[in-house]
Design brief:
Elements (H helix, E strand, L loop, with lengths): L15 H12 L2 H4 L2 H37 L5 H9 L2 H30 L8 H18 L1 H30 L23 H16 L4 H5 L6 H30 L5 H4 L10 H8 L5 H34 L16 H20 L1 H10 L3 H22 L16 H15 L3 H5 L3 H7 L2 H16 L20
Helix pairs in contact: 1-7, 1-10, 3-8, 3-10, 3-16, 3-17, 4-5, 4-16, 5-6, 5-13, 5-14, 5-16, 5-20, 6-7, 6-13, 6-14, 7-10, 7-13, 12-13, 13-14, 14-15, 16-17
Length: about 475
């Protein structure tokens, strides 16, 4: 039987290949497979590519910032810990609870989506049966061990990576005319108003779409505490993941834009649940691939399951970390003899299940919960950038040298400052049309995450009388013991 100390420690079983695939799989999903068409339709080929490149650059800076802190202080639930140590405990408290809430709700959204995907094959079976079955499966994967989570995520992510690679090869061969008949070339890039459609406002609107597509890359920070060798595996994973994600997204969008004109009604209608008009399905159909829609539906199912699996893991680890730091009840800081945070896992599963049930019993409540978690990922990105900026400044102020860091982010302070500015732009541009038309009801729903974050932060700040930590008082202890 594990002793008390062991029962407060998560298992360190994640390998480099797990970390790479977890971050890669977390960001490649329905945003690329289905909704990418709407980005091209809204801003044209040039606008879509520019927006994804800009967000990709921001993600690069965020990942290097996170990498510097995660290799120096590898802990699960890192965003909450870093913000509470380098900025203000109240900010760490609000970030932690917001991030846990976001992923717990995301699990519910994903299990609800599995029913939509499965109806493609089995339309007569009630959707709740599929959803609850997949929720039970995700729970079992996470309760067995962290290794079972890592292995499952590795193989689910591998399916997505292979699909993108096959799509890119097929797409390029179609463009040059080897497949599908005559060569298409790049004529769709200058079709009508292309390559840039709608000017700067349209491109900025795609920033939000691109931002949602890239969310999940920050999971590397959550997994740091359970990596076997965080000092070497995290930098390697960050380097691999960034270039692969950028390559996959930019090339995929470039191929889609070349083959399908931005005026296509199929692109305008792209939605997260319509596999028949997925740009990937359309391209595969063009070359006569039998069962293209069925194949892509299977891939999208793996994407949704991968997202739910990652969401269950991320939210459980964040709640576990808060249980140890004092931001949540202490019971959530306990682990079983396999290093699995069982109380945190049970609480997260319960919230996911209750949220899903609200979609059946009260759609309005469900939609409100989903909207409330909408901007939380971007708030986490903002928290990462601010935390890193203050971490590096405190590190130098207290007499340390950058050379002491195992991994250090380049282009400091340009990187985190640029990430802060772009995160604010994306958050502000969440629903710019409702701002322009003074649609207050839509405005409240779209930006609900912000007042929730502020309420949590102010409540903790007033109750515990916290303040912005002076740089010379920032706690830079690499391995601080958790408070019991």
């Amino acid at each position: 039987m594990a002793d008390k100390t062991q029962q407060n420690q998560v298992s360190r079983e994640l390998k480099t290949r797990h970390l790479s695939m977890i971050a890669l799989g977390g960001s490649i999903g329905t945003g690329l497979f289905v909704a990418s068409g709407s980005a091209i339709a809204g801003a044209g080929p040039g606008g879509a590519i520019l927006a994804y490149m800009a967000i990709g650059l921001m993600v690069f800076f965020l990942m290097t910032s996170l990498g510097e802190m995660a290799t120096y202080i590898p802990v699960s639930g890192s965003f909450s810990e870093y913000a509470s140590r380098f900025v203000d405990p109240a900010v760490g408290f609000a970030l932690g609870w917001n991030y846990w809430f976001n992923w717990a709700i995301t699990v519910a959204v994903d299990i609800a989506t599995t029913a939509i995907v499965m109806h493609f094959w089995l339309p007569s079976v009630p959707g709740w049966i599929f959803s609850l079955s997949f929720l039970a499966l995700i729970f079992l994967i996470n309760i067995i061990s962290v290794k079972s989570f890592g292995e499952t995520e590795y193989w689910l992510s591998l399916v997505k990576v292979i699909t993108v690679l096959v799509f890119l090869v097929v797409g390029i061969l179609t463009i040059v005319g080897i497949l599908g008949g005559h060569p298409i070339g790049l004529e769709n890039y200058t079709y009508h108003a292309a390559p840039f459609v709608g000017g700067l406002p349209a491109t900025l609107s795609v920033f939000v779409v691109a931002g949602f597509s890239f969310q999940g890359t920050e999971l590397i920070g959550i997994t740091a505490g359970e990596s076997e060798t965080p000092e070497t595996s995290i930098p390697k994973a960050i380097k691999q993941v960034f270039w692969r994600i950028l390559l996959f997204y930019i090339l995929a969008i470039a191929v889609i834009a070349a083959i399908i004109p931005y005026t296509s009604p199929n692109l305008l209608g792209s939605g997260a649940s319509d596999v028949a008009i997925s740009p990937f399905t359309l391209v595969f159909k063009r070359i006569g691939l039998a069962g293209a829609a069925s194949v892509m539906n299977a891939v999208i199912l793996t994407s949704v399951l991968s997202s739910a699996n990652s969401g269950m893991y991320a939210s459980t680890r964040m709640l576990w970390a808060m249980g140890n730091s004092g931001f949540a009840p202490r019971i959530f800081g306990k682990t079983n003899d396999r290093g699995v945070p069982l109380p945190a896992l049970l609480a997260t599963t319960a919230v996911g299940a209750l949220t899903f049930l609200s979609s059946i019993m009260g759609p309005n409540v469900y939609q409100l919960l989903v909207a409330a978690s909408g901007l939380t990922g971007f708030l986490a990105w903002l928290g990462i950038a601010v935390s890193h900026y203050r971490f590096r400044r405190a590190f130098i102020k207290q007499g340390h040298q950058v050379s002491e860091l195992v991994y250090h982010a380049r282009w400091f302070p340009i990187g985190p400052i640029l990430a802060i500015i772009m995160s604010v732009i994306v958050i502000a541009g969440q629903d710019i049309s409702s701002v322009a038309h003074f649609a207050w009801d839509r405005l409240l729903v779209s930006y609900m995450s912000i007042p929730l974050f502020l309420i949590l932060m102010i409540w903790y700040k007033v109750k515990h009388k916290t303040h912005l930590i002076p740089l010379d008082q920032v706690d830079l202890t690499p391995h601080r013991e958790h408070r019991q």
